[in-house]
Amino acid sequence: MTVGQKSLPKWILIVSGLFALLELLVSIAICFSPQSVLETIDLNAKGVDYLIYMWAARQFALGFIFVFATFKQSVPMLTIAYIFFLVMFAGDFIIGILQKNNSLILSAIVMCMISSALIFAINKRK
Predict the structure, then answer these.
(1) 22, 76, 84, 93: which one has the fewest Cβ atoms less than 10 Å from its Cβ?
(2) Residues spanned by the domain of 123
(3) Are residues 34 and 69 in the same domain?
(4) Quick one: 94 and 69 in the same domain?
(5) Residue 5: pLDDT band with limits 50, 70, 90
(6) How far is CA 100 from CA 47, 54, 104, 105, in A?
(7) Contact of 70 with 16, CB cutoff 8 Å
(8) How many CA atoms are closer than 13 Å to the CA of 22, on its beta-carbon side?
């Protein structure tokens, strides 16, 4: 942080740290126990392992970005991370509608609201 920047509130850093941990744990679960995350997918089908590892890499990258941004207490980096989070869950919302999966729709709405609130809180100027 530069001299002119105010430090982020501790609660934002704690929430961001929890999201970082969550994303890293999800990536590990996807890599090492995909059946626990993907109950309805035939894991023996051709090409599925490729998609699983791509999804795990996406989750790991997001977790790493959250870890780095939280450690640095960087407002721009955390803003970008939460914008990515918002876009990702907006996509999950659309997928939930297309798949008629109410739990995915509901969780996507909740996470979009949380992401939006955190973007606002991080960039709020007093």
Answers:
(1) 76
(2) 74-126
(3) yes
(4) no
(5) low
(6) 25, 24, 9, 8
(7) yes
(8) 7
